[in-house]
Specification:
The chain is of the alpha/beta class. It has a single domain (2-186), classed as Alpha/Beta hydrolase fold, catalytic domain (Rossmann fold), CATH 3.40.50. Helices cover 35% and strands 17% of the residues. It has seven helices and eight strands. It has helices at 15-24, 37-53, 65-77, 90-93, 116-121, 149-155, 178-186; strands at residues 2-5, 28-29, 59-63, 80-84, 103-104, 111-112, 136-141, 160-164. The strands form two sheets. The chain has a six-stranded parallel sheet with strand order 2-1-3-4-7-8, sandwiched between helices. Strands 5-6 form a two-stranded antiparallel ribbon. The longest helix has 17 residues, at 37-53. It is globular. The model has no long low-confidence stretch (mean pLDDT 95). This is Esterase. InterPro entries: AB_hydrolase_fold, UPF0227/Esterase_YqiA.
């Protein structure tokens, strides 16, 4: 089973999630996670543990904040993961929402509260020691307008690191990597 983990203020029905769903079909789940980090991690841990207890293989694909969550979970459970323009220090990048009463979801325009305590709670999931860097592919595009790709390139230098010129935070042309991801997970 592949779990696609979306980014901040996104959902499991976004355009990138749907591209993965079209390619991987029933092999992938693209759920919409709670906006509160502790609840999002708890939800993902329950799905992972349920699947592992049934002797199923679990693979993760995470984008942006979902990449941060994927890094933590793959390291904790020794899973393979693909990280797409991952946030590596989300408490820094999400600081711009400090003092904002409500954040708007990019997909459905729903609004939610994201507090300083939510931002601080992300530090609980920081990975200091990457146990098996060979379990990761990191895909970065230099023109990411949200995150500095250099932070992820430095933090994840021991993973299979692919850095492309140009692009965007959404990772333009992600479908070019679907076969590589499929091979990485299943070979």
């Amino acid at each position: 089973m592949i779990i696609y983990i979306h980014g901040f203020a996104s959902c499991g029905f976004g355009s990138k999630a749907q591209k993965f769903k079209e390619y991987f079909e029933e092999e992938i789940i693209t759920i919409s996670l709670p906006t509160i980090p502790n609840l999002a991690i708890d939800t993902l841990e329950q799905i992972i543990e349920f699947s592992l207890n049934k002797d199923e293989n679990v693979y993760l694909i995470g984008s942006s904040l979902g990449g941060f969550y994927s890094l933590y979970l793959a390291n904790k459970y020794d899973l393979k993961a693909v990280l797409i323009n991952p946030a590596v220090n989300p408490w820094n990048t999400l600081h711009r929402y400090e003092g904002v009463e409500f954040v708007t979801n990019y997909y459905d325009n729903s609004r939610f509260e994201f507090t300083q305590s939510h931002i601080n709670s992300l530090k609980n999931y920081k990975v200091e020691d990457l146990k098996n860097p060979q379990n990761f592919i990191t895909l970065l595009q230099e023109e990411d307008e949200v995150l500095d790709f250099n932070e992820a390139a430095i933090k994840l230098k021991d993973t299979e690191l692919i850095v492309e010129e140009g692009g965007s935070h959404s990772f333009d042309g992600i479908e070019r990597y679907f076969r590589k991801i499929n091979s990485f997970f299943y070979n």
